[in-house]
Amino acid sequence: MKSGHRYQAFVEGFASTTPCLPLMHVTFGRGFVSILDNGRIEPGERDQVLEQELSFHFYGQPSYRPKPTGAYGRSVGSALYCFVLDFNALPKPSSLLPFDSGGYASLMKAHCDGLDLTDFLLPPSHDAPGKVVSALFGSNSNYFGMNVRSSAISEVATFDLHSQGLIRLYNTDGPVPYDQRAGSIEVHYDAPITLTRDNLLGIIAPDIICEEPELKAFAAVHDADLIDYSFDHEEPSVRQRQIRDAAQKWLASNRYFENIL
Description:
The protein has about 260 residues and is an alpha+beta fold.
């Protein structure tokens, strides 16, 4: 029997939360301009953890932090950008994980009893992320805020080490240092995603960039919202907090949350 079968059975026992949250793909300026030019999100170089060429997205959260490729400051290239995608309008993903794969491999594995990352792979379906949210958080708003469902731990089987490990990772009051990537569902595609009016919901970008005619025209063609954040001289880790706040506000205004915590 496959390792992790108790975790899979626990998650499968829950209905997916509604509405389905969008996917969020974060990139620096160089990648952003490339996506604008080509009209699609391409798989990146071979990932060292998953050993595949993939594009990385997070379910309902702009949690990915790409490595910086240029100098910090107010340059277009040093800014962070986020494409907000309608998950249900995209093809079935190639794979899913209930956490950030890079972070798990380097930081989180010890908190999950050394369990293999592949044990946590979810069925590559559109409703799998919502089932994880329902099972461990109970609602979309709890998931965004990393508020684990209070009764989840008592419902997990004694030998379900995988679900127990996830709860430790997700619990911001627990022994694991706070990092929202630990509680962000990671979604992978091994083929390009062509952006269309049907699948592109919004673009999160610095306020000064949202006034650029080229970006405004791109958003208009795709009928996508331009979601701005205040651009300053902070380093990317601070800007990631800014795009997260902008994403939360947009999700709330579009009724993806039952309430804001």
